[in-house]
Design a protein that fits this description.
Layout: H1 7-15, E1 24-31, H2 34-45, E2 48-49, E3 60-64, E4 71-76, E5 95-98, H3 103-112, E6 116-124, E7 128-134, E8 161-164, H4 168-177, E9 181-189, E10 193-199, E11 205-211
Parallel strand pairs: 1-4, 8-11
Antiparallel strand pairs: 1-5, 2-3, 3-4, 6-7, 9-10, 10-11
């Protein structure tokens, strides 16, 4: 079972990593309860959590994924847009941030290619520029009512993040032990991929996969 590392270790990892342009860089995971979600992800996946100065770990708690440049944060949100979990009878929604070289230029291309700007460029702290958009599918993973929750259906879209694991069944077992629910048990796709998915403690849908080579 993976084990979480210390705050100091996580901060050292963060300072030495930066994703390449146009690759996933950050995951915002909305939560009803940040401590509950922190215990879930630390126990099931061994993610490292750290607390930046001046922030409350009860409402915002960043994490570093072991052996990856991808980072993210658990963020408390009580509204229907931020958390669309089991308590509200809807799917949860993880927001994926992509590293880009120019936020405004990227948002311009989004609009030119049929997407819509959700939030224009804003500056956060001293080192970060952010923006967000709906893609042409309203932020999409599949073409059914559960997978697509975009503008045509009047709801937020949802990208499903798949995490690489060593054992799909063992991971799903830990998910259940720590308060999550299995959405889809292990299945084999093609000759080289095992897949599964689950709801975390906050109602967010997360996928897991293992490559068989």
């Amino acid at each position: 079972m993976p084990q979480p590392t210390s705050d100091s270790t996580a901060e050292a990892q963060v300072s030495s990593s930066k994703p390449s342009p146009n690759s996933p860089a950050w995951l915002n995971i909305p939560c009803f309860s940040v401590p509950r979600a922190r215990e879930f992800y630390a126990s099931v996946f061994g993610w490292s959590f750290f607390s930046p100065p001046g922030t409350s770990s009860e409402s915002f708690h960043p994490f570093k994924i072991t052996d990856s440049v991808v980072m993210g944060a658990l963020m408390k949100s009580d509204d229907a847009e931020g958390v669309r979990g089991t308590e509200k009878g809807k799917e949860g929604g993880i927001v994926v941030y992509l590293m880009v070289e120019d936020v405004n230029a990227t948002l311009k291309r989004v609009v030119e290619k049929g997407g819509k700007v959700k939030q224009g460029k804003r500056v956060e702290g001293e080192h970060t520029e952010l923006g967000s958009f709906w893609d042409t599918e309203g932020n999409v993973k599949s073409d059914d009512a559960e997978g697509v929750r975009g503008t045509e259906k009047g709801k937020e879209g949802g990208i499903v993040v798949y995490l690489m694991v060593e054992d799909v069944n063992a991971t799903l077992k830990r998910v259940v032990e720590k308060g999550g629910k299995v959405k889809q048990g292990k299945r084999v796709e093609g000759e080289h991929t095992e897949l599964g998915s689950f709801w975390d403690t906050e109602g967010n849908v997360v996928g897991i996969l293992k490559w068989l080579f």
